[in-house]
Amino acid sequence: MSSALPQPQPKIGPNDILRFLLELFAFVSLGIWGFMSFPLPWPGVLIGLGAPALAILAWALFLSPKSVFRIDVFGRAIVEIVVFTTVALAWWMLGQPVVAIVFAVVAAVSGILHGRSQLAD
After folding, report:
1. Angle at the Cα of 113 (from 28 to 116), degrees rounded to 5?
2. CA atoms of 106 and 4, how far apart (whole Å)
């Protein structure tokens, strides 16, 4: 008979789901920006594929739950701010200031809530 205790499941709240959707939106947005802002086929294809790839790489290295580099909550916040600010600027450059502002506000509020929960732990 095994005496192993069951592992507690991580609690996933509404802000966690929102943050996941913001990440996906950010990666797709950077691809859209790259393809629409630069002439095709080059450099549009390179930037359209490279910008989201760099954002995904940064997210995987520093922000994902199984990130390669463990940095403190402030370092994680800086990486997240850089990625999300880049996305807001990309929408602004595409001539969509409403999307840029709404995304920036939602991302900022979600980030603040997440940061407060991280500091409380």
Report:
1. 130
2. 42
